[in-house]
Amino acid sequence: MSTPPNQRRGPARAPGLAEDLRISIARLSRRLRTLRAPGPGGAAGGPLSLTQFAALAAIERHGTMTPRELADHEKVQPPSMTRVIAFLEEQGLVARSPHPTDGRQVVLRSTDAGSALLGEERRRKEAWLSQRLGELTAEEREILRRAAPILDKISRA
C-alpha cells in the first residue's frame, strides 16, 4: 500500500518541502501559461514566445535597458537576445533610441503596443488568480499573503 506524499516525511524536513513547492509552483506556472492571449491567427501559446515575453516584460519593468543589460538580466547570450530584440522591434513592441551617455550603444524601451500587450496578459492572469483566491478561506489567503515575499526572495536567489 502506498503512503500519501505528505505523510512520507516529517513536516519540517526541507527536502519534502522543496519537492512540494517545486511541484506546486510548476503546476501553477503551467496553468498561468495556458491563459496567454492567442497568437497570430488564433494560434495557441500567445503572440510571443516565453523568452520574448520575458524580455519585453523586463524592458517595461526597468524603463529602458541596453541590449547587453537585457541579455544579462535574462541570462542569455547576447546573440540570442539580438534575435529576440529584432523580433520585438519588428512587431512594434520595443523601440531603440540612442544611449544618453554612450554614443556607441542604444537603449530599448517598451512601446505603447508592447505595454498594452503586457497589460492584457497581466489582467488575464490576475483575473484567474483572483477568482481562485476568492475560493480560499480568509486564513488561506493570509498564509499566501505572508508567503509571497518569501517566494519572491527564493526566486531572486
Could you explain the architecture of this structure?
The protein is mainly alpha-helical. The protein is 61% helix and 8% strand. It has a 3-stranded antiparallel beta sheet with strand order 1-3-2. Helix 2 (50-62) packs across helix 3 and helix 3 crosses helix 4 (78-90). The chain is elongated and about 55 Å long.
**Quaternary organisation of the protein chains:** single chain
The secondary-structure class comes to mainly alpha
Give me the side-by-side strand order of the main sheet: 1-3-2
Taking all residues together, what is the mean pLDDT?
A: 86
Distance between the termini: 39 Å
Any descriptors?
single chain, 157 residues, mainly alpha, 3-stranded antiparallel sheet, 6 helices
List the helices and strands and how they pair.
Elements: H1 14-33, H2 50-62, E1 64-65, H3 67-74, H4 78-90, E2 94-98, E3 106-110, H5 112-134, H6 138-155
Antiparallel strand pairs: 1-3, 2-3
Helix pairs in contact: 2-3, 2-4, 3-4
Structure summarized in a few sentences:
The protein is mainly α.
